[in-house]
Amino acid sequence: RMYRAGKVIQSVATMTGISLTAGFANGALAKQGLRVANRAIHRRTPAAIVASTANNGTGDDSSLIGGSASFSTSSSQGAPKSSVAARLLAQSAAKTVATKGSSTKAAAKKPAVKAKASAEPKASKAEDAEPAMTKEEIAVRDAKKKALDRVLGEIDANFGKGSIMKLGEASQAKVATFPSGAMTLDIALGGGMPRGRIVEVYGPESSGKTTLALHAMAEMQKVGGTVALIDAEHAFDPEYSQRLGLDVDEVVVCQPETGEMALEVVDTLVRSSAVDLIVVDSVAALVPRSEIEGEIGMVQVGAHARLMSQALRKINVNAAKAGVTIIFLNQLRSKVGVIYGNPEITTGGNALKFYASVRLDIRRKEVIRGKAGADDEGVRVKVKVAKNKIAPPYKTAEFDMLFGRGISRDGCMLDAADELGVITRRGAWYSYGEERLGQGREKAAEFLDTNPEIKKQVEEDVRRVVAERLAGAYGAKPNSPSAARAEPVLGAFADLRTSELFDEGAGDEDLREGLEGIVDFDEDDVAAR
Questions:
Q1: Of residues 451, 478, 474, 467, the one with CA closest to residue 503
Q2: pLDDT for 494
Q3: pLDDT tens track for 160-176
Q4: Which of 18-22, 94-98, 498-502, 509-513 has the highest mean pLDDT?
Q5: Is 1 exposed, middle or buried (0-12, 13-18, 19+ CB in 10 A)?
Q6: Under 8 Å between Cβ of 55 and 32
Q7: Are 278 and 309 in contact (CB under 8 A)?
Q8: Phi/psi at 297 (nearest 5 deg)?
Q9: Cβ partners under 8 Å of residue 415, min gap 6
């Protein structure tokens, strides 16, 4: 062991370019020298100091100063100038000598400083816990920052502005939403339909997929957007769409002949950035050209899935950059031979399931019967959010779809008000404050329809409560009143003036202070609610 210790010490001397004294090679001093050498390596102490300490057996200041001087002389003469270890050890020796000399002089001249320092141990401990950055560290940090800015600029110059950025500067990273046409569905979605994302709506026949898509198109037109419809099923009804509130004259309609044509039209509209919402009705009707040109009954294995997968790889990126929402309506098929589990699958392969940010499963729940022998008025629809990347998924929403009129707006508002506590129900009676609306859901809806002022107040209260809950659940923290007004997480509930009120459940004083400049924040009213 002592022989190997001597070899280690000799190798340290060789690396640093310093000749050791003869006493270092003796076996009697090898063990002590190895211990001192290890301590010197960890502390970056010059090897000459190690040698002098090992030979003298003491660690006084004179030996340290002498060793450092001998090290600087030997390193400047014998060691190569390009030796990194020599330069590092020289700097360490200079710092050690300067520290020792200054501490000795300070102790000789001002002995009271030691007592003063001992009287303030807390301050010294705090300084030791959080050491200040040296000039070298600050210079390195600034150099890295400048290098990052230069690299980001080069990438923007090569690939276009906005191709890479810091997340705090990325405004498009925030997902904005727009209303879907059903208030209960907007609550389940966390604010509404997302902008710049792909949405899939699937379900059995006559479940309301097209009606829901048409309502979303009408709501997009109300906020000033442009909509397009890819009618692959060739079943578009302008009169019915107009009754739902859609401005048919401003709708861009395409009835493609093949699936390739339909998806090329979608990609072209998306890259133009002139359209805000595109509805494809439906994925099952996007027939590949090879299948149309072939004979009926010819096997085309995976042609439809390959078509959708290739198209979505292109459309997804362009839609996110342009902020265009694409709603794909899809049908259901049944797998053969499935005994356990759900045999239902959607058409077009699995690519759409992955690229879609929101997937809605829409089903008929029950039929709304008419009065005493009259025709059925509509159906009760249940929508399950099977996938949601912008809000918590697996929520459900129910609303009425009336034949010839579409989604019942008053019914959605009444259900949402009942669920959120804006309207109280005792038995079969619905009440809004001290005002009785009626006995039963139908009577309450009729009362709201005949009293537009009360209906408007109920709607504003519902939107305000929903905005409060969304802000509290998703941690909305606008930095300014303008940011609070345009907070995208509120989605369909951020356009009313009353929707900027936040209850104490939000739990953020900064948020409340930022909103006091916009609205009159009534503490008593919030506490009462």
A1: 467
A2: 55
A3: 887 888 877 765 567 88
A4: 94-98
A5: exposed
A6: no
A7: no
A8: 100, -10
A9: 184, 398, 399
